[in-house]
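The following block was generated as part of the benchmark described in Methods. Ligand: heme C.
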Amino acid sequence: MERSKSGRTLTLCLAVVGHCLLTACAAVAADRPPAFPETPADGPIVPLPLALAFDPDRAALGERLFHDRRLSHDSTLACVSCHNLAEGGDDGLPLPGRSDARRGEVNTPTIFNSVLSFRLGWRGTYRRLADQVDADIQDPRLMNTSWDEVLGKLRADSGYAAAFARTYGDGVTRQNVLDALSAFHRSLITPNSRFDQYLRGREDALSETEKRGYRLFVSLGCVSCHQGRNIGGNLFQKVGVFADYFGSRGNIREIDFGRFLDTGAQHDLFVFRVPSLRNVAVTAPYFHDGSVAQLDDAVRKMGEIQLGEGLTDEEVGLIVQFLHSLTGEFNGRPIMSE
Ligand code: HEC
Ligand code: HEC
């Protein structure tokens, strides 16, 4: 019942050679399905670190900034308005914004664990938080402001002036605001999901059906793209390897061109950063266009367009159960009741 499609995975693997996990590729090159790891710890997915080091004073200032609406032109939007930490680190909307006139063009990704991804944004434009924030602040559809405006508002606040002087010495500057937000970003990781507990050796942290879902995730080849500590976030891949996602969805917009927009290279057309699947059960809706509302539909669609597989309802159900075990903890508590 638990299938593996070595032929398809072989094609895929050749397409991503150079990126693909060496072990998975070696197995597939011999026309075998990727081997299921002998022990969880040998697998292609590793647990999140329990914490990352950061400067607590800078992170505390970053946390305050993250919740401050003065970072937007009309002082209505803070980072947290779209990256809601009490929920999945996103906004739960297909596309961000309160009105159609100022609707963002791509879905808001969760900020949780994004510090561990190799690039930021759906198409992986930025390597550093500072560049992502620069873009979010100036984007007319997002915060719609400028550094001059933001720094003017923050400097007029004597509380900030004192806190920045204490922490940085040279006061409220663009560089210091970005540094404080970056320190806070490092605190936004969600370790200790049940799947990570399983990887660390707690066999009974997963149910039998969740384990079957994980095996399918590996044997079908999902793991050749969604892998590493973030279960994604470390490769670029085309959306629509086996089926034309954009043609069948229709209404192709410039934003769908993906990484092509950053490089102008033909082979980057429709290429995106493989997103992390950590906490994916609590970050609907899905895909860069926010077009898929339910996790089971996202899994079914992935089978079809990325693996050339029509998954059965049972297979989809098992994978979805496995994906639910990826929800982690923030500040020691489950990040959102599912
Ligand atoms: C109006 C909604 C909105 C606000 C406000 C907002 N963001 Fe974002 N954020 C987005 C969207 C949409 C993206 C995806 C952009 C893209 O891929 O082109 C994003 C992407 C990101 C990412 C990359 C996540 C990943 O997985 O790659 C980070 C980090 C981030 N934002 C941090 C911030 C910070 C810090 C602030 C405050 C300064 C902020 N955002 C304010 C909507 C928002
Ligand atoms: C060839 C690489 C590749 C393979 C194989 C692959 N994916 Fe994906 N996956 C992606 C990319 C790229 C996206 C981003 C799609 C978009 O933004 O439009 C994605 C998106 C997703 C999402 C939505 C995440 C979000 O936050 O919106 C889920 C869920 C997902 N994949 C699960 C799976 C499952 C389950 C499998 C196996 C059945 C699978 N993927 C196989 C590359 C892949």
